Amino acid sequence: MGASKSKPKEPGQRSLSLDGTIGTGSDGGYHHHHLNPAQQTQTPNRSPAAGGARRGHHPGHAPTNTPELALFGGVDHTGSVTSPHRGPLAGGVTTFVALYDYESRTASDLTFKKGERLQIVNNTWYFGKISRRDSERLLLSLQNRRGTFLVRESETTKGAYCLSVLDYDNTKGLNVKHYKIRKLDSGGFYITSRTQFTSLQQLVFHYRKHADGLCHSLTAVCPVLKPQTQGLARDAWEIPRESLRLDLKLGQGCFGEVWMGTWNGTTRVAIKTLKTGTMSPEAFLQEAQVMKKLRHEKLVQLYAVVSEEPIYIVTEYMSQGSLLDFLKGDAGKLLRLPQLVDMASQIAAGMAYVERMNYVHRDLRAANILVGDSLVCKVADFGLARLIEDNEYTARQGAKFPIKWTAPEAALYGRFTIKSDVWSFGVLLTELATKGRVPYPGMVNREVLDQVERGYRMPCPAECPSSMHELMLSCWRRDAEERPTFEYLQGFLEDYFTSTEPQYQPGENL
């Protein structure tokens, strides 16, 4: 349960969000036994609240009837008070009064003083302290409709908020508009000064009824991504084959199959089954010990293995399958430049972590990127290419070797480094730009190798910005050391639209 503290408007009053906050990673932003639940209110027509704000009365809490101006909705002046035993709240605010001082002990704790009032915000549309980029990723999920929204803290103005709204137009396709929510000295809020509100809840309620100058009226609250667990269970690493059930075949390749499956009858997983003889079980197990230590939100998490042949590799399940299939499918037709650039930046973020860990992927391409809900992209199959024992692959120019994605020094001399991964990333960018077209169209592997050695580089794909093609060319520099780092690529792609789009939509002109 995350906690997000805003700057107090006046002494003795602070606000927290304990519902809907993304990415805080905390396990309890306050200590219940130090606080007095002063008042619990409910405002009609609000989003359902999480159970975290439905705490019962604690012995030793002195009740108080003092109303206060609530940042996210205030007191329900109808006088109705919601009982904690009546089920989920509809998005109100619970106020606590500190009975004595408390000094935080961890980064996820909250320091407070005796007598301070703290508000527990139940609104599912309030996402707290998440970045502009993360808000766009959540909103740009293809299942969201126009008008899907969230409210977050402003990154640029302390104490202000931002309303982020999903929009659509024929030029950009799906895109996100950001509106700064400013505070009045009197304590109110506004996007445009001609329409002012006493609380954020009132503001949201208004714009749900009327667009009133926004790109669209607010329709649905942005859904929250389900967090990924750190593994199947304690000590569940080498697992018995009998604990896995193969439910649905998702794909097949040269070296095995990929299945959606179930572990232990409870947990959905992805299972890669390798053909007998594909790799040495001993070498695989040794490599897997390294792979399981690589943990990053943009890497597909390795859960467990069956190390006897046929080898099974158990990973987290990604609902949309491989990026290559996703790009070539119906969903790929809906993707525009903002989504494609964001997907590229996610892949670069995963590879920047691989870079920091001094690891090498060796087979970076769209087929080895997996897509989940909300266009989340994660790098898969890192390190496995080195272990494959197949003459058609180990010859590096055989039919099974991905020559079109491989840097010349790796294809010709076996020099696989993070810089050869950068070359592969440049080719992957062409896959994104062309919605899954095979690189070097019309050329066979041998021809590609010869042409690249002579200095040939793929031209700019149709409808691809020249700046993106220049980035591809930088990944394909002959001298490996002159190629950019993944850290640079991540930063470039994450900031790609910063210079071309305003930070906020102009609220005063609404």
TrEMBL record:
Q: Which organism is it from?
A: Esox lucius
How would you classify this enzyme at the top EC level? transferase
Entries under SMART domains matching the protein: SH2, TyrKc
Bias kind Polar residues: ranges: 37-46
Supply the name of the protein: Tyrosine-protein kinase
InterPro entries cross-referenced by the UniProt entry: Kinase-like_dom_sf, Non-receptor_tyrosine_kinases, Prot_kinase_dom, Protein_kinase_ATP_BS, Ser-Thr/Tyr_kinase_cat_dom, SH2, SH2_dom_sf, SH3-like_dom_sf
Region (Disordered) residue spans: 1-88
Which EC number(s) does the record attach to this protein? 2.7.10.2
